[in-house]
Amino acid sequence: MIILGILIIKLVFGYEIDVNTFSNYLDVQIKHIHFEWLLNMEKKQINATTKYQFQVIGESINKICLDMKDLTIYQIYMSNGIIVKHTVDYPYADSDQGQRLNILLNREYKRDEFVILSIKYSIDSRSESISFMNKSQTSTKVMPYLFTQCEDAYCRSLAPLQDTPAIKQTYSATVIQKNIEATDVFMSAEESQEQFWIENHPQIDPNFTWKYKYFIQKIPIPSYLIAIVAGNLQKTPTSNGGRTFLISEPDKINEYKEELKDMEQFLQAIEQYIGSYTWGTYTIVILPPSFPYGGMENPLLTFASPTIMTKTGSGLYVAIHEMAHSWFGNTLTCVNWANMWINEGFTVFLERKASLYYYQEPDDIKLNAIIGNATMYSDILDLGSHSNFTSLHPDTTGINPQLSITEIPYEKGFQFLTFLEGIIGAEDFKFMLRSYLTTYQYKSIDQQEFQLFLLRYLYQQQVDNYSTKRYQILEYWDSWIYQPGLPPIILDFSTNKLIETQQYTISYIIAKGNQPDNYAEYFNFYPSQKKIFLEELFKKAQNKELELNVIEQIDKDLQLTIENDYELKFRWFKAILTAGDKTRFTQIAEFLGQVGTCEISCPVYKALNELDHEFAVQTFTTHYEFYHQIIRNSIQSILEKNHQIIK
Ligand SMILES: [Zn+2]
To answer: Does the keyword Metal-binding feature in the UniProt annotation (predicted)?
Structure first.
């Protein structure tokens, strides 16, 4: 049924449609947007005018529908100043995906005609895409701070848009702020010397001086990659003569720069596998700890959580992952959120190839695949192995697509590509990926198009045993994409390092609270091995084999409760809470108030909630203001879901 439906849709429109946009993007498409934003960070408000250039794609149109959420619309007018009418409706009663803005045009527009119109509106603290932070929430405490998070369908609370990865547009922006010395602002675009069109803002008080910054993004991008950050910010190159830069509050910038000194080498390692970086420079912003993800791949302006700065370099795979998105995700994009693995699976695949070139540690790469597989398995257990969300093609009809995002598009996507590489051969697969990127650069596609390209490429290259390979590729393709639960083929990532780490874990269990002879081996482990050791402890805790006296001895030897690396610390807390340890609640509550990244704090909340629901709720209430809206929703659903189970 699903496959038949998709074939019919493809026949009509070329690619799968996006069910999470209310816009009429199949009839008319945004080509360029100019944002003009007057920031009032104290009042947590932005006065905005956005000017659009649309092109009619269908036969004719007399209205334009855009996505929006929680914006206040004042006026919509054509380029000749004629004000046009608009209405707002709610295609879904729960409004979780926002509203539809219907703009009634002054006349009928025919195919290929351009429509230029502007919208005056304001953004306030209801916006789910913007975090407005008081200066007390920042590190330097000099001035307020704001940052955006638009993926996947949150950009509609930043501006009325065709909020779908299917549509790519160029953008320019004028950002106006009070001229306070410490303030700066950056966007996912180049800074421009050209001064763009300025509206008259009655809010610009002549008693102050104002700072204007201009931006231009000349490469067409989808709306979810539009980003802005403003605050007490400093920018510095990460190495002499390289292409990579770092932005953060000034008090931490030297510390971060030291940890990120090899960014240029990361970029070169990725290029070695996949080809040239085409976006010019690369900049990473280390945001305040309430940023809800490890990283976000906004072009020219990757956002990252300070939790990746571990002082040991163990969090840098996140930086490599976000860089790899410059090819998969930002240059070649999924056409809807049901095809998210077209972004994430390919990016994880490229991240691990580049990590192999950079670190030269094949075992470490395999161990990372095992850790990713364990996280995916845990998501499958949580969702239920029959849940459609555990497939590589989740149905996001009628829901906020955020709900469908799990580790599955990342790790099952990675495993599917590893499976295909095994059939095709590593060298042929690499050159296929390079050709795939060139063919679809700056476009958005679905998985069916990838399959067609792959088979056409292999045929045209006259690869050996084409018929056999074609059969092997197609035999399991639909199972990989549509079948829920575990992958149809289980891949083997095992290494001797895995066995060593498992034996090390057992040595602690059988020592029954004494120090095992080999305890110091831990200090020579790869970061991935340390994670696997902690995941093994978690499994022992689930099987009720992790005794409290063993926990005490491990902590005495390895000092995990005061560990600086958040990736290790969260796994430690998850394991000991699952084992029933209630002696470290103070440290755990403090930890949960320092990290706003769901990947890290959500598993701890889950374990804490199962052990002591009241304390979990109390901890969440204490830190509620610190968390981003996205993670508040995730934690709330953990607390509610597990509480029902307890009842
Ligand atoms: Zn990613």
So the answer is: yes
